[in-house]
Amino acid sequence: MARSCTWSVFRVKDEQRAELSATDFRSDTMSLYRNSAWFLKGMTEFTRSAFLTASKLFVEKDLEVAMAGRSFMITGANSGIGRATAMAIAKRGGTIHMVCRNKDKAEEARADIVKETGNKEVYVHILDMSETKKVGEFAEGFKRKYKALNVLINNAGSIMSQRDVNAEGLEKSFATNVLGIYILTKSLIPLLEKSADPRVITVSSGGMLVQKLRTGNLQSDRGRYDGTMVYAQHKRQQVVMTEQLAKTHTNIHFSVMHPGWVDTPAVANAMPDFHRSMKDSLRTPEQGADTAVWLAVSEAAITNPSGRFYQDRKMVSTHLPLAWTHSSPLEEQELMSLIEDLAKTFQPH
Ligand SMILES: NC(=O)c1ccc[n+]([C@@H]2O[C@H](COP(=O)([O-])OP(=O)(O)OC[C@H]3O[C@@H](n4cnc5c(N)ncnc54)[C@H](OP(=O)(O)O)[C@@H]3O)[C@@H](O)[C@H]2O)c1
After folding, report:
1. Radius of gyration of the chain from Cα atoms?
2. Ordered domains of the chain (ranges, CATH)
3. What is the atom index within ligand 1 of the atom nearest the CA of 101?
4. Is 146 labeled as catalytic in the residue annotation?
5. pLDDT in tens, 198-250
6. Residue 78 near residue 106, CB atoms below 8 Å
7. Which residue, by CA, sits nearest to atom 11 of ligand 1?
């Protein structure tokens, strides 16, 4: 009896091992497939030359619009895509609220925008999006001070090389890329809803195509911390969050977009090898910002349904073919409930 028990334990272990290695093999093969399919897609669609090809179909007059009297909040507006977006909208006369974490960098970018566009309606607000409580406090203060906000552009994003937590004990890139965006957006919804033609645009990434939505490890505190994959998961969560918010807030036009591969400090710092090898093929920040600007200002953008994912001014699929990254409505609801619960915990009093 004892012997047979011992054998059965070994048999179970062997079966588990076989099961585990089969799972690992399937998951490694799937990752390899997703990463290869994504890279091939990137080489044909995300580069500067792909932008130049796509832009041949752009309707020029879509961006020939006057934005005076409309206000735009842009997070991470001091650098890269966010700065180029702020510049393009300021050129069209829009009031710009730059939400940045570094005062010196923000003031320098503001001075450049004012100088280049002649538009003085450019305001700096200092906020670190990874500081969860402060995000809610900032949004409440903004609502008290301003009567309108027409467009919110959630652009700030970060990739961390190692796991770090904020004062609230939350993993910092999750706090910045997911929870901060959720709190800022949800808190500003009443103000957006009072304003004409309200829109919310989130700058996600095509990198999310390699990730299936996961809700079981939001704080990335289990397993090895791979900053790039954690970031890609957050970008997937942004897509799901946008789809879900669009369903519940039908007065606002939501969209989420991929800017392509763009030469910015984020890429140079977080992915130095990729940056070095792709440097000549990367888009300029202006090219990377084009779709965000189009979504923020054009009439054409709001003729499309709310909640969609864009690349080069076109609605595109949120999944690679055969990549098994689709999630169920239950999983999507679960993400929203978990984020909503976290947001409630850190609500300003
Ligand atoms: N570049 C690409 O190829 C690419 C591709 C796909 C998606 N994206 C997305 O595009 C967006 C803009 O990135 P980028 O490429 O333009 O890089 P970037 O030039 O480095 O700009 C990132 C901006 O986000 C700000 N930021 C980061 N963490 C923040 C925080 N906790 N609080 C407030 N602001 C914060 C940065 O502030 P500091 O200047 O103070 O650091 C900076 O202003 C990001 O969401 C990124 O994920 C970029």
Report:
1. 22
2. 23-345 (3.40.50.720)
3. 33
4. no
5. 999 999 999 999 999 999 999 999 999 999 999 999 999 999 999 999 999 99
6. yes
7. 155
